[in-house]
Amino acid sequence: MIQLTLGIGQFVDAFTIALIFVLLNMVVPNMFKNIQNWIVLGLSVIVLSLLDDAFNGASDILLVPIFCGLIKFSPSLPIKNKLVILLMLGIDVVISTELTALVVLSLGIPIGGVEFAFACVVLQWVLAIGLLKTSRRAYVRFMNKIGLSGVTLTTFILMSLGLLLLGIFGVVLTARILNAQTKMLAVTLVIIALFCVFNFIGFALYAAAFLKKQKADDEIKQLRETQVYVEELEKKYEQLRIFKHDYKNMLASLSVMSQKENAGQLNQSINALLEDKELTTDTHTTTPEQIFKIKDALVRGMIYRYYIRSEKNGVSMKVEVEHQLEASDLSVPITRCLGILLNNALEASSSLGKSKITVSILNDHSSTDFIIENDVLSDQTPDMNRIYDSSYTTKGAGHGLGLASIKKISQRYNNIFLETKCQNSKFTAFLSVTEEK
Amino acid sequence: MLNIAICEDNREIISFYKLIVNKFILEHPGSQIRLSLATRDPYEMGSYIEQSDGEMSFVYILDIEFAGSSKKGIELAQMASRHGDNVKIIFISTHEEMSIVSFRYRVSPLDFISKEDGMDRVKKILSQDLENVLLETDSSKKEKTFMYSVGSRLVKVKFDDINFFESSTNPHKVVMHTKYGTAEFRSSLKTLAESSGDLFRVYRSLLINVSNVLSIDGKYVTFKDQTKFELNSRLLSRIKAWLSS
Asked: In chain B, which residues have their Cβ closer than 8 Å to the Cβ of A285?
């Protein structure tokens, strides 16, 4: 925007480019431990500042490929994040440069002298580094205050900011090429910067509200499930009460009968009573008391949810827990896997009519096994070598992603093992969690 | 030679089992059967298992709980299963739903007989079980088994059911593909390849059971259960060369 004399212009330009790399080192530490980075940085400072002299604005465009390709930092970082980082640093430098220009010009230092160059460089560096540090701290504090965190959200906010910054860059470049007035540019910059800030605050508040709503929804859902559970208990209690009542009646009639000393009839009645369905059915396996042995709330919740769901679908589910199951640091992946396996078992069983799902949890000092068994029709046996493919399903489009994601989980953890087999019209899934690391 | 070993802490019950076994031996004079141990002390049984010859066939008749001893029937069974290929386990104990489930998956016993069903029934089922074991050991073709464990769960599969092993993206695990499904466990293809001559490492991440290969044609290896596995022609010719050598 201000045409400087040859040597001074390059001097200021070179320091501006070097500044970007210094700022990058603040964001991504250890960048200067790599020799290649040093070479790329050195060369690009010299070459870009010379190029800038010949073609105004060339460095701004060339920085992008250098940044994304040549400099080695955080290899796992997606390119979009690198671009966002570059844009953030870029806008930091641009803002500080423009401010510097305004300050230096208003101080009345003669343009083009050595004094001018030094004043520019020092002020620009101080402003840029200060701005980056304060804005970073402010960002973290703001996010903490509204109770937000999470990599995805941060990336999203940065991306939306990045888009706006791209606009600013466009304006800056246009201004440079058209040799527009410094003041006009400064005003535009301030307006855009304000716009950015408000946009950011608005978005963050919206996201916070959204997340809170979701949390509340989850809680409501959980409450509803507890409600179902309580109702279930009440129902069982009612059954027991009726049974007790009937039983007392029958005992009373027996005692009447015994007074009449009709031994044959008495015997008959006692036998009939002993064979009563209410007495002989094994209540132990049809009620979920075993579930209380699971102390891990996540796992228990998931199993209980499917217990209720299978009852609704007319599938009987049996839960057996060997010893108390305590919560572990793998509760989340285990629960995810169980959800998928139980869902598959229930979907397979519901179509069969009268069928049974057995969930056994065996645990001892060295491992915990979750074993889920369900019936399958012999002619509907899935292709066991393909069930883990993400596209494979016996249930039509939209299903079948389950086992593929379990496989991913078991691959990620060294001590979660998965086994599935289909033999004698039974599908069995074993999810084993071992103690070894 | 079929060795039968009994461990039961009740004096009357153990002599009852001994009677059944001895009667069984008398009824099968043509077969080599021996009642090699009948003890009330689970630790004696433990040391017997440790010293037993892994090449021979064993039937262990075990109780689950032993009065006054911390050693449990399941520990003995796990020890025995790990100790030899031709080991059959019969539990005779009081009926507890949970123990049947847990024992079924941990040691896959031959049978689980409930004492509550009455001693006549125990006698009948036990004799039947022994009969079955004898039939299997006498048949000339012994079935090769493959054994792996995940935590405390010990699994034996018929070697003939295995199609291939592949490496998992997790470096500590391998995935076994059988006729009936897949299983992950902790091992490496290198160790597995060394364990049996029938396993051929086609390339870095695939180990196939060549004794189970039905045909090689076109682009596929076909196993005996009609499972097909696609490979490139260079690897297919490697398998062919290995099969013909």
From this structure: 97
